[in-house]
Amino acid sequence: xxxxxxxxxxxxxxxxxxxxxxxxxxxIADHMVLQQKATVALWGWADAGERITIQCSWNRHPVKVTxxxxxxxxxxxxxxxxxxxxxxxxNGTNRIEVQDVLLGEVWLCSGQSNMEFPLAKQKxxxxxxxxxxxxxxxxxxxxxxxxxxxxxxxxxxxxxxQGNWAPCTPETAAxxxxxxYYFGKEIREVTGVPVGLIHSSWGGTPAESWTRKEVLNxxxxxxxxxxxxxxxxxxxxxxxxxxxxDLDQWxxxxxxxxxxxxxxxxxxxxxxxxxxxxxKLYNAMIHPLVPFTLKGVIWYQGESNAGRAxxxxxxxxxxxxxxxxxxxxxxxxxFVQIAPHYQQNPEIREAQLLTYKNVPATGMAVITDAGDSLxxxxxxxxxxxxxxxxxxxxxxxxxxxxxYAGPVxxxxxxxGSSMRIRFAFAEGGLVAKEGTLTGFTIAGANxxxxxxxxxxxxxxxxxxxxxxxxxxxxxxxxxTFPHAVLFNRAxxxxxxxxxxxxxxxxxxxx
Length: 510
Fold this sequence. Notes:
- By secondary structure, this protein is an alpha/beta fold.
- Among the domains are: 223-273; 408-498, no CATH class.
- Helix content is 28%, strand content 25%.
- The strands form five sheets. Strands 1, 3, 4, 6, 7, 8, 9, 10, 11, 12 and 13 form an eleven-stranded mixed beta sheet that branches.
- A hairpin with a 2-residue loop joins strand 14 and strand 15 (418-424).
- The N and C termini lie far apart (69 Å).
C-alpha cells in the first residue's frame, strides 16, 4: 500500500512538472527573425504564478516575468540593429534555448489563393511560376527565413498555430508563397538585412473569414454576413439528412439502372468546418500570431468577394483596422489590386482603390498588365512581389529615389465638350504604351457610356466623344479584363477608375 502511495505521488509530481513546463508558441522558435530596432513581444505559457527568466544574447540584462492565473506570460524586449545569429534562453521549471535567431525585418503575408500560390509546381491550380525550375534552384539565402502557418479553422480565437521557421533553401522555397518569396527576396537585396516572412493564407476564402467576429457584429451591414452563416448552421442538419436520403436513392438507382446513372450527390459542407465561413481563419491563423512584432503586412485577396464588391469597401477597411488594433500598431498594409480575369468585375478593383485612398499607411500594387483572362491564378508572380516591394522600399524603408506606384485617378473637370483627368504618380508625364489610349468611356447626364478618345497632355488626359456634348463622367478600364495601356514614365500601369459614384451591379449584394 505504501509503495502504491509513493508511486501515485511520483505520478502527481511528474504531471505537475509537465503542466508547469514553460511552453512557447510555434512562431517563437529556432531560426526565427525578430524585428530589429524595436520593442518585440515574447510570450508563452507556464504554471500559474511561475517565474520565468529570459536572457537574450544581444542584451546583457535578463528580463523576468511571472505567469498569470491563466498560465500565460508576456514580456517586451528591446532589439538592436539587424544581425545575428543570437540565442534566447527561457528559464522556468524547465529551460528552453531558441537558437539561430536573426534580427531583421518581419512581414506577415496573407490572403487567398494568389498569395498561397507556391513557387514550384504542385497539385491542381498550383502550377508554379513561369520558369520555376530555375527560380527554385537559385532560392538559397540563409538570411531569408520562412514560416508557413498550417491551414486550420476554428470557432473561437486560438492560442497557437502549427508551423516552423526555416532558412530559405530550394527545398523550403519550393512550396512557399511565390508572391511573398519575391517580395522578401527584393527587400533582402535592397536593405541587406535579414527578412522573416510569416505566410498565412488559404485559397478561395473571402475577407470575412480573416476578420474578427466582433468587427463584423459591430456593423449592421457586415452583420448580415454573420446572419447568413447562422442560417447555414441551422440548415446544415436538414441539408445533411437530405443528402443521405439522396445518396441512398442514388445507390439504389446505380444497382437498378447502371447505364443511366445520374451524377452522384455532393455532400453539404459543414459551415463550422468551412474555411469560407466568417471569422474561422482569423481565429485559427491570425489571432494566434498576435502580438508577434511585425514590420508590416502584405495581402493578396479579393476574388472571393467580387460578387459583393460594394460591401468589400467597408469589409476590407474594417479588417485592416481591426488587425492594427489587435497588434496595437499602425503597421503598413500593402495589398494587390486583383489581376484582370473574365469573372472579376471592375467594382472589386474600385473597392480596393478606395481602400488605398481612405486608409492611412496602405499601398496598392496594380497588376493590370500581368493578368490572364482565363486563369485566375496568373503565373507571373515576380511582378506582383516586385510591385509590393516597391511600396515597402519607398514608404517603409525610405528609398525615395524610386517611383513606387502607377497613375492613380485624382480629379476630373469638364472643359467644354471634354473632361480633363488628373492623376497622382504622373510626374514626368504619362505614357500610352501602345501609342493610342483605349479603354476610356464617357457619359453625359443620361449615364449612357460610349467609347471615347483620350489624349495625353503632360500629366493629364483629355477625354471626349462626339456623341456626348456635355460630359459628366469618365471611366477607364471599367471591364472584367481591362487592357493595360496607360502607364507612367516608370513603366507602372494605371489603376482602372471611374469619376462617377453611380450605383453599380453589386450595391445590393450582401
